[in-house]
Amino acid sequence: MRKVVMFPELQKAKFRSSGRKNSLFSQGVFAQPDHKFLHFVIRSMLKKPIIIFSLAALAFTAMALPKFASAHEEQVIRIGDKDYLFVIGSLNEPVIVDDKTGIDLRVFLSDPSNPSDPKAPFAKPATGLDKTIKAEISAGDKKQVFDLAPAYANPGAYIAVFFPTVKAALAYRLFGTIDNVPVDLNFVCDPAGHTHNEEVEDKSIVRISDKVTRKMKAGAFGCPLEKADLGFPEKSSSLYDIRQKTSELNYFAILSLIVGLIGAIAGIGAWMKSKKRI
């Protein structure tokens, strides 16, 4: 008989090794437990059902996790004779004014058996799109075109970094060609954030152009939040607001200076008139 020390509560458990001298069991690396040890383990688990409940909860949570991190929009789009899955959102979410963010785009050639799942057996990353499409970011009447850069060590993923300067609804536009087919796709942020259930898919067919058709849409991505709302330990205004306030102060300072100069000139003129009379 041999004692195997594992945890303090198991130190008294006895194990039997096999008769094979060269086996791992005979060397004590893996020992075969006797009935007393098995009874001990079962009694311990029954005395603490929280262990079983916790394991079950972890397993359920793992199965319930969404396919992607929250705040991304998914669209299955048929381009030419192929289905593509577009997953788009923003970097470093939630997006905060003056904080670094950008377009976070992932594109896959869809598996015909499950077009909306990038982990399906025959889904493949769509690489090389940085050479054929560009991104336009708009906020109100302001627009700017960005190049897409491939994400490091992540085939089929692309980014375009920018810094939002004001709280505004952002729209991401992808335009160019995919498989020599002209594309012009638009994605708009949701002010309410990621309020949609990713499992609820809008499968209404939307024709974008002759050779481009949207077949599915799900999820959403949020719009920028005010910097002051999340400032810690002190509230902080955005750089744009600070510039606006500084401009106002400069305006009033210049106006006060002009008024002061006018008053000084008027005073000097009155003094000179009075001096002539004398």
**CATH architecture name of the largest domain:** Sandwich
Number of β-strand runs: 15
Query: What distance lies between the first and last C-alpha atoms, to the nearest angstrom?
Result: 129 Å
Write out the CATH superfamily name of the largest domain: Immunoglobulins
CATH topology of the largest domain, by name, is Immunoglobulin-like
What is the typical, i.e. mean, pLDDT? 78
Output the structural class: alpha+beta
Number of spatially distinct domains: 3
**What general form does the structure show?**
elongated
> What oligomeric assembly is this protein in?
single chain
- Rg over CA atoms, rounded to whole Å, is 33 Å
Q: Provide a count of the helices.
A: 3
Percent in strands: 25-35%
Helix content range: 10-25%
- What's the story with the biggest beta sheet? 8 strands, antiparallel
What is the C-level CATH assignment of the largest domain?
Mainly Beta
Order of helices and strands: EEEHHEEEEEEEEEEEEH
Weakly predicted, low-confidence segments:
2-33, 57-70
